[in-house]
Design goal:
17 strands, PyrdxlP-dep_Trfase, Aspartate Aminotransferase, domain 2, single chain, four-stranded mixed sheet, 14 helices, globular, alpha/beta, PyrdxlP-dep_Trfase_small, 407 residues, amino-acid biosynthesis, Aspartate Aminotransferase, domain 1
C-alpha cells in the first residue's frame, strides 16, 4: 500500500465530500490553544462546536480515560457496567430526570426522544396522537427523522420523502403554536437557544407558554439541549435558567468533554413506553464514554465553573462591542453564557465564511451559525487572557475582510 502524506490534500482524495474543512490540520491542543502540522498556534473559540467544555486534553479527563482503558472498553447491552450506572445516577441526582438512555451522539439522542414521544402517545392515547411540532430554524441532527423535525428545509432537500406527521411554526411565536397544536400533537420539540439557526434564545415567557400548551393538550415537551447543556449557559442545563421543565431532554456534545456520548433523559411517567426491545444502541452506555462523561459532569457542575460563565461572557461581549464600535460589522450580539452569536450587518449577510477563514489565517478558530452569524462556543474555563488575545485576532481578521472588499 502506497503511503501518501497525511495532510489536507489527502482529505479530498479519501473522504466523502460532505465537509469542507479548513486548510490547516490540527494535531494537538492544550486548554484553549491548538497547534497544526506546521506548529502554528491558534486560540480556540469554537470548542469543537460546544463540545470541549473543559478545553483540550484536560488532565483529569485524560486520567479518567486512561484508568478506564485499562479496565473495560465494551460489553454490549446484554450487560450493564459501573460507569454507565454511575453516570445515569449522577444525571438523575442533578436534573429533573428519573430515567436515562445512553447513545453515541446528539442525533441519536434526539432520534430516541422523538421515538419515545410517539410511543408514549401511542401507548396512552392511541395511534392518532402522533404529530410532532417543531420550529423553523431549529436543528436536531442529520438522521432522516431528526433532519425532518429540524426546521431548515435545506438539510432535507434531496432526501425526500421525509417522515410525515411533523409541523413547523415560527420560534418565539406563541400564537402560531396555539394555532397549530391539537389533541393529535404528541410532542413539541425546541432548543432553549437555537444554535445552528443563528444563536436565537427562547423568550422565557414563550418557553413557559409552550409548557402550558403541552400540558393542555397532553403533549410532551422535548428540550434539545445538545448544544446548550452541561454548563454552556451557566446552568448545568439551560432549562434550569428558563424555569421550565421538559418531559424529555437530550444531551450530547459537552457531556463527554470531547469523548463521543449522547443521552436522553426522561421521567418515570414517560420512560415505561421504552419497554424491553423497543429501542437500542450497540455502543450506547459503553464504559469508556460513561467514565469520561461522569468526570466531565462532576468537574463542570461546580460553583467554580458554572459561576464564572457569566463573567467570561461579559468579556466576550465587551470585546465584540469594541470591534463593532470600530468596524460597525454586527447588528446584534446574542445568546446566553458561552454560546455567543454575533449577527453580521445586512451588507455582510451570506459572507460569514469569509470571516471564519480570515480568523483562521490570523490564528483564531471560530464558527458560523448559518451564513450571517459568527458563533463562539469556547471552553467554559477559557482564561480571560485567551479571550482578549483571541478578540485582538478577530479584530485583525474583520479589518482584513473589510479592506479586501473595499479593494
Amino acid at each position: 500500500m502506497s503511503k501518501q502524506p497525511v495532510n489536507r490534500a489527502l482529505f479530498d482524495d479519501v473522504m466523502v465530500p460532505n465537509y469542507n474543512p479548513q486548510q490547516m490540520v490540527p494535531v494537538r491542543g492544550r486548554g484553549s490553544r491548538v497547534w497544526d502540522q506546521e506548529d502554528n498556534e491558534y486560540i480556540d473559540f469554537a470548542g469543537g462546536i460546544a463540545v470541549n467544555a473543559l478545553g483540550h486534553v484536560h488532565p483529569e479527563l485524560v486520567a479518567t480515560l486512561k484508568e478506564q482503558a485499562d479496565k473495560l472498553w465494551h460489553l454490549s447491552n446484554t450487560f450493564t457496567n459501573e460507569p454507565a450506572l454511575r453516570l445515569a445516577n449522577l444525571l438523575k441526582e442533578t436534573t429533573f430526570a428519573d430515567k436515562i438512555f445512553f447513545c453515541n451522539s446528539g442525533a441519536e439522542a434526539n432520534e430516541a426522544a422523538f421515538k419515545l414521544a410517539r410511543k408514549y402517545a401511542y401507548d396512552n392515547f392511541g395511534p392518532e396522537k402522533h404529530e410532532i411540532i417543531a420550529f423553523y430554524q431549529g436543528f436536531h441532527g442529520r438522521t432522516l427523522f431528526t433532519v425532518s423535525v429540524g426546521g431548515q428545509a435545506k438539510y432535507r432537500e434531496g432526501f425526500e420523502p421525509a417522515p410525515g406527521g411533523i409541523t413547523h411554526v415560527p420560534f418565539n411565536d406563541l400564537e402560531a403554536l396555539k394555532a397549530a397544536i391539537s389533541d393529535k400533537t404528541c410532542a413539541v420539540v425546541m432548543e432553549p437557544i437555537q444554535g445552528e439557526g443563528g444563536v436565537i434564545p427562547a423568550d422565557p415567557e414563550f418557553a413557559k407558554g409552550v409548557r402550558e400548551l403541552c400540558d393542555q393538550h397532553n403533549a410532551l415537551l422535548v428540550f434539545d439541549e445538545i448544544q446548550t447543556g452541561v454548563g454552556r449557559t451557566g446552568h448545568l442545563y439551560a432549562y434550569m435558567g428558563l424555569g421550565v421543565t421538559p418531559d424529555i431532554l437530550t444531551s450530547a456534545k459537552a457531556l463527554g468533554g470531547g469523548f463521543p456520548i449522547g443521552a436522553m433523559l426522561t421521567t418515570d411517567r414517560v420512560a415505561p413506553s421504552f419497554g424491553f426491545g423497543t429501542h437500542g444502541s450497540t455502543y450506547g452506555g459503553n464504559p469508556l464514554a460513561c467514565a469520561v462523561a461522569e468526570k466531565a459532569v462532576e468537574l463542570i457542575n461546580t460553583p467554580e465553573v458554572l459561576g464564572q460563565v457569566a463573567g467570561k461572557r461579559a468579556v466576550f461581549v465587551e470585546e465584540l462591542d469594541k470591534i463593532n464600535a470600530k468596524h460597525s460589522i454586527f447588528t446584534e450580539v446574542r445568546g446566553d453564557g458561552l454560546l455567543i452569536g454575533a449577527e453580521l450587518t445586512e451588507q455582510w449577510h451570506g459572507q460569514g465564511a469569509k470571516f471564519l477563514a480570515a480568523a483562521r489565517e490570523e490564528g483564531l478558530m471560530i464558527l458560523v451559525a448559518g451564513p450571517n452569524v459568527l458563533r463562539m462556543a469556547p471552553s467554559l474555563i477559557i482564561p480571560d487572557e485567551d479571550i482578549r488575545d483571541g478578540m485582538a485576532l478577530l479584530d485583525k481578521a474583520v479589518e482584513k475582510v473589510i479592506n479586501s472588499q473595499a479593494n
